[in-house]
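Human: Cast an eye over this sequence-structure pair and say how the chain folds.
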Amino acid sequence: MQVVSPKTDTFQHVYGYTAIGESFTKFGQDFAAKPEDYKLASNFMQIAEQLFAEGKLVPHPQSVGEGGLYGVLDGLQRMRDGKVSGEKLVYRL
């Protein structure tokens, strides 16, 4: 994912892998562990867990479509047509 830094107005790469707190290799490049990312992710998960438990954070309802992978094409078209809002489209494989 690329994000624009509001301070420098330049693109930065952000990898979710750093939330694990371990070094890793991606795209042939070595990345060091970032303890601050791990701490941020840990704090976020604790807060999110509490909000879910208190019912203050609620996931979108699921709409289970038919047709397996072929049904996904219909779901994508429904999204393009603006017929999907506030729901998660799910298809059984």
In short: Residues 62-91 form one domain. Residues 35-53 form the longest helix (19 residues).
